[in-house]
Amino acid sequence: GQNIDQPTEMTATEGAIVQINCTYQTSGFNGLFWYQQHAGEAPTFLSYNVLDGLEEKGRFSSFLSRSKGYSYLLLKELQMKDSASYLCAVMDSNYQLIWGAGTKLIIKP
Amino acid sequence: IAGITQAPTSQILAAGRRMTLRCTQDMRHNAMYWYRQDLGLGLRLIHYSNTAGTTGKGEVPDGYSVSRANTDDFPLTLASAVPSQTSVYFCASSIGVENTGELFFGEGSRLTVL
Question: What per-residue confidence (pLDDT) applies to B2?
Answer without folding.
Answer: 72
